[in-house]
Amino acid sequence: MNAHTPQQKVVVVGAGIVGLATAFRIAGQGHKVVCIDDGKPGVSSDAALGYIAPPSITSVPPDVVLFGAQSYQRFLQFLGDLETVTGVRPYVAANGYIHVATTDPQVEEIDTICQSWDTAGLNYTRMSGDAARVREPMLSSHVQAAVILRDAMNVNPQELRELLRAALEGLGAEVRTGETVQSLDVIGGTCTGVLVESGRIDADWVVVSAGSWSNAVLGGLRITNLIPTKGQVVVLRSKGGLVLQYPVSTSDELDIMPRPGGQLLIGTSNEDAGFDTTTTAHILSGILNRALAVVPGIGEYEFVRTYSGLRPCTANRRPVIGPHPACPNVIVATGHCQNGVLMAPLTADSVVDLVHGRSDGAAPIAMMHPALP
Ligand SMILES: Cc1cc2nc3c(=O)[nH]c(=O)nc-3n(C[C@H](O)[C@H](O)[C@H](O)COP(=O)(O)OP(=O)(O)OC[C@H]3O[C@@H](n4cnc5c(N)ncnc54)[C@H](O)[C@@H]3O)c2cc1C
């Protein structure tokens, strides 16, 4: 809060990583925050593997690479501020990740990936398959080439959500779980609050960060191109022996994330299946087969469980962060697709700027328009 911005009543709809991070930053400015969440099945933040690495140009447009890189730069500060409020140091591993290539086209694609990392000013090391196996002895002999993005971290998104909830309570914000926001109360282009089952909550600002369900909350203000994109994950556990040192990725949608304690999360798919969250043998067997081809030793790991999550994606792979043109005190913060954990800190700061009427600093990259293609 500052002299020009008196305390505002802000309702944040959705307590995924984006809503919680945003509520945390707004509450940290002294505003009165209520964050509401109904715990839908398929919450993306509970499915996320936890890569904190700027995306490459092979998956998103160049401005989104830069947005990701800027959010990456803020991530450690964000975790530090979380620790200051909660007294708990969030888990973070900062040893980078290995992107591996097992086919000739994938080897060529490494050039493109490195170019976009150059543009974003990131540090990486290219290496042969043999050099990669020295770094990560679990990699298979099929790996022809690799690149380690040294500027990459990983976190535990589920733990971060818990810490953010605790931090919000520490800052005096209200976190309401198990409650659905049924609609926004909009009169003449201004939103005066939200409607929940138990009544109405007044607001000067409403932030809609309800992930894939944001259009249902927006109602008549819905944005046109939000597509829930299912990602399935298999969880294994090491029974001793070799443990993966680095997270490993390939360009055919394979991500293998080691967690402390020997767990390994292996994903993932990109399915346009509406709000369906079932996990399927066909997809999971494909994920496991691709993982075994890259890291054969995990064939001995114990099976733990499978799960899925719904990424909030836009057709143009750009997040939607900005005031609604038809109702400017409704701020939409969604559409982060496969990078929402990474992009949560910069998204949150961008929303604070909007509440404070600032256009400098972390300007939103995609001011929303209802007719966005
Ligand atoms: C398998 C998988 C792996 C991923 N890995 C990574 C990764 O490594 N790194 C990365 O950066 N990103 C990753 N992502 C993407 C990331 O998970 C998402 O971009 C991010 O979690 C989106 O967060 P969100 O808060 O916008 O949405 P969500 O996490 O989906 O949260 C939305 C919340 O809104 C609530 N809600 C919805 N409607 C209402 C309502 N009417 N009233 C109240 N509450 C409501 C829901 O219950 C939910 O809790 C991954 C995603 C998947 C599926």
Automatic annotation (TrEMBL):
Native source organism of the sequence: Dactylosporangium cerinum
Keywords tagged on the record: Oxidoreductase
UniProt GO molecular function: oxidoreductase activity
The organism's place on the tree of life at top rank: Bacteria
Domain FAD dependent oxidoreductase: 9-354
Organism lineage string: Bacteria, Bacillati, Actinomycetota, Actinomycetes, Micromonosporales
Pfam families recorded: DAO
Protein name: NAD(P)/FAD-dependent oxidoreductase
Protein EC: 1.-.-.-
